[in-house]
Design brief:
signal, disordered N terminus, alpha/beta, ABC_Transporter_SBP, six-stranded mixed β-sheet, Rossmann fold, Iron complex transport system substrate-binding protein, ABC_transptr_periplasmic_BD, 2 domains, globular, four-stranded parallel β-sheet, single chain, about 325 residues
């Protein structure tokens, strides 16, 4: 499975490339319609134009495939990718049963993607377009007449300041591109209502301190910015790591020592996992390594699905409620 840590590494490489280009990022592009039904969207500092409703689309990760399915575009999908990294939700998985799988554990190669003959591809990050890894670059896709859209929170320069609500921008944009605004609107409305319900439940409550970490073996990576940071904020937690800390000043994640995590002594630990086994080994490590930490002593170890932290997924909204219920259980009792 493609791990959160590998996502961290990919964001580093992509951030360096984009920063060198000096291209500004416009995270909330406003779609505009032109003659003949053409739609232009500002995405990751560039214009994405489609001349009509795309009839052949590819979701470059399960999160993106799911969003396209929820917009009623199952018949337009000619490929899905990175299928082994996360399962599709049960209520839409059947819709993708006949959609060709282009790749399982990583992005499809340039040949695999272009052989599917897509007119539109939707990606969680810029990593999926890294030509050095053998993937189709944005330029190569443009030359082939393929429009490419990156989830707003996955734009390289947006990675530090991404928010849960970025997915609403994606839904608005995709609704315009696929003439599916009628499908996008209720998803946006429900997502905003779900967030508002959490805000109401948590109003005036004290915020427990929270550290969000990811473990690969005994390597501890902490999160101090980006969508993950905003998820904790929206969940009623007080992040112990923040963009103001030197190690997170330029990038949303950083490896830290166990001693640094112990010194922070958070009231709760949130950790992203890729499988039940990963959850078990992470919990075992935390209990064994930090027996005196408040989060461990008070049994506030909160595992979340790593896929719910990826840019461009409604999981960003759902996981806010999930964490909030663990941090403030009495706020949600009926």
């Amino acid at each position: 499975m493609r791990s959160t840590l590998s996502l961290v590494a990919s964001f580093v490489s992509v951030t360096l490339v984009v920063a060198g280009c000096g291209t500004p990022v416009t995270p909330a592009g406003t779609p505009t319609s032109g003659a003949g039904g053409a739609v232009t969207i500002s995405n990751c500092g560039r214009d994405v134009t489609v001349d009509g409703v795309p009839s052949a689309a590819v979701g470059l990760s399960p999160s993106q495939t799911e969003l396209l399915l929820r917009l009623g575009l199952a018949d337009s999908l000619v490929g899905q990718a990175q299928t082994a990294t996360a399962p599709l939700s049960d209520d839409v998985a059947g819709l993708a049963a006949d959609v060709p799988v282009l790749s399982e554990s990583g992005p499809p190669s340039r040949e695999q993607l272009l052989n599917a003959k897509p007119g539109f591809v939707f990606s969680p990050t810029m990593y999926e377009f890294n030509a050095e890894q053998g993937f189709a670059s944005l330029e190569q896709l443009q030359q082939a007449g393929v429009a490419a859209y990156v989830a707003t929170g996955g734009c390289a320069e947006r990675r530090m300041s991404g928010t849960v609500e970025d997915v609403f921008t994606d839904l608005e944009n995709l609704g315009k591109v696929f003439a599916a605004s009628d499908k996008a609107a209720p998803l946006i409305e429900k997502g905003k209502a779900d967030l508002a319900a959490v805000d109401t439940a948590l109003a005036g409550r004290a915020k427990p301190t929270v550290a969000q970490v990811y473990l690969e073996g005994t390597t501890v990576t902490a999160i101090g910015a980006g969508i993950e940071y905003d998820i904790i904020r929206r969940s009623g937690g007080d992040n112990v790591f923040s963009p103001q800390d030197p190690q997170f000043a330029k990038f949303f994640a950083a490896q830290i020592t166990p001693e640094a995590l112990a010194a922070a002594d958070p009231d709760a630990l949130v950790f992203a996992v890729n499988s039940p086994e990963h959850e078990r080994t992470t919990a075992d490590f935390l209990k064994r390594t930090f027996p005196d930490m408040t989060a461990v002593r008070e049994q506030r170890l909160i595992a979340i699905d790593a896929a719910d932290t990826y840019p461009g997924t409604l999981g960003n909204v759902a996981v806010v409620r999930e964490i909030a219920e663990r941090l403030h259980p009495d706020a949600f009792t009926s």
